[in-house]
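Appendix B, record 7
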Amino acid sequence: MKNPSEAFMKALNKHLASLSVDDVDNQMLQDFMAKYNQSLDMRGPLTEKTAQTADDYLELAENAPSKTKAIKYLKKACELDAENIDAELQLIDLTAKNDTEYLQRIEELLAKAKKQLEKEGYFEDDSIGEFWLMTETRPFMRVYSTYMDELMRGGKLRLAIEAGMDMLRLCENDNLGKRYDLMNCYAALEDEGAALALQNRYPEEKSAMFLLPLSVLFYRLGKEEQARQYLKELMEVNADTKKFFAAILSGRPPKIERSPYGYRPGTIEEFEECVNLRPKTYGDCAGYWMWGQEQIKALGKTAKSKTKAASRRKK
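Structure tokens (predicted):
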């Protein structure tokens, strides 16, 4: 959950708080960075014997060889720091007995994380819109994102939309990409107005995550010209559009070796990410895939004809 830069910023903020310093100059930052790196070098490889803090045990859990070991480390992290939201979130992931318990515990953790931030003043007006830019708010946002994902998975799309819109309010840059989830929710609910309002909010957004659900939405509404236009834009930004539609219709999705760091935008991996994680949007789209494949062929022929015509004019 946490990357090295977050761990560094957390340590830096703790250091500054101990000095009662609000602003940090370059020299102070350089001095702290040198001491921080030195402490990591002196500690050596992180093991059970060298682990000291809750974050150490959280890191051990993330690299644990077994589920049993991971749970052990996470419980130790929570014991050392009762407010370590990341550790609690991972513990829920590994120990919840069923979907009902999972969602209930996520809701409870979300309320706890929000209460912590409210107590620390992060829900004041000057912080709203800047969540995620502050490392202290990231654990809360990760829980919120998980909560929205679980609502979508359970088919509670209206509640998922409420969560997603609130996340955009808290983090206007949408670093967690919840706008994609929202667009898929709107497509599933055939909510044209909300979908277009979201598109207007992010006018520069041109990706399969936006264009595919928009095309599906307008196809379902019987507005095929708009659906075709979004499909055309999709072909322009993702060269694997034709390949993915053919794979869907064949019933034999291509084997994809995914990177542990996420999907590659503009490739078939992006389609997989979009469709597989949002079954409520695409679960009954057989007609759309067949229609889309026909449009892709027609658009491809049109593009070839234009290319040939342009070539003749040059001659």
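Remarks on this record: The radius of gyration is 24 Å. The mean pLDDT is 87.
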